[in-house]
Amino acid sequence: MLKNIAFRVVVIYLIIGGLYMFFSDWIVQRFVTEPATLTRIQTYKGLGYVVVTGILIYFLIQTQLNRLKKTDQLLKEAEELNERLNHTMEELRELDKRRNMLISTMGHELRTPLNSIIGFADILFKEYSGAINKEQAEQLMIIKNNARHLLSLINDVVEIGRIELIGEKLSLTKINLNGLISEIIDSFKPAIEKKGLSIEIIPDRIEIFSDEKRIRQIPINLLSNAIKFTEKGSIKIELVDAGDFVDIIVQDTGCGIDPEDMRYLFEPFGITHFKKRPGVEGTGLGLYICKRIVSMLNGEIFVESQPNKGTKFVVKLKKKMEVV
């Protein structure tokens, strides 16, 4: 700033001096011919030059100093604002950390009694404690289904808290992706068979170096959604070796997603914006969790869908995550 002021002063000084000398000499030479008068005029001219230049330079410097003061004041205010923002950010981080810890604790406290409810309802439903009638069996099934739905919601909320917890690190290890996908499919076989769906697996023997716990959640959530939103038809799971990346593709022939609903797809509770589908329950947290995990793993997730024709999810992940 000071260098800028000094440069401007020099430039203005030279411009004013040059113009003053040129026009004053031109006027004097044209109208004054006596030597004595010429000498006096030259003296006055020099004095006038000094006075005029001094006044102009004073105003120039004063203007620049005023601007400098305003700039300094703005910088000071900006620093104070930045300090307040940093303080607020620290408070928000602390609140966010406490919130996630509370969610985790409450999740544990809620899951314990829910698991008991599901367990005892299952014991009663299977008549281990005595015979039950048809109406009682239906009521027990309602209890089990609603308890499982609530347990799933709690698990998703707790998982979001873990993902968003500041400073959470990845646990990297070598993963046999084919074996992992096979395990996940086996765990979903009862649900797949119950709906009479066919499942096609196109494996490509791939090993990756990543976080197994996080990787596992991606196909679990995608396959769960595919089963949930496919009443008849098939589900296809494909692993594609793409150089430094691997593509996990989950495709179904289900109800598809309306174009106007696509923007809510990866938002928490985004499914609440969707058109209601009979017999389908959910929170929409699964895809939000997938999106967050994929971002954590420096990957990408894409979706293609047409109403009543099905949906295709493509997850592109690095084969080798770097240890940070």
From TrEMBL:
The regions listed as transmembrane in this protein's record are: 5-23, 43-61
Output the InterPro entries linked to this UniProt entry.
HATPase_C_sf, HATPase_dom, His_kinase_dom, HisK_dim/P_dom, HisK_dim/P_sf, Sensor_HK_Regulatory, Sig_transdc_His_kin-like_C
Q: Name one GO cellular component term.
A: plasma membrane
What sort of enzyme, by top EC class, is this? transferase
Coarsely, its chief localization is membrane
Task: List the EC numbers from the record.
Answer: 2.7.13.3
Q: Which UniProt keywords apply?
A: ATP-binding, Cell membrane, Coiled coil, Kinase, Membrane, Nucleotide-binding, Phosphoprotein, Transferase, Transmembrane, Transmembrane helix, Two-component regulatory system
- List residues of the Histidine kinase domain: 105-321
Localisation: Cell membrane
- Catalytic activity entry: ATP + protein L-histidine = ADP + protein N-phospho-L-histidine
Q: Which Pfam families match?
A: HATPase_c, HisKA
**Coiled coil residues, start to end:** 61-98
Which GO molecular function terms does the record list? ATP binding; phosphorelay sensor kinase activity
Entry protein name: histidine kinase
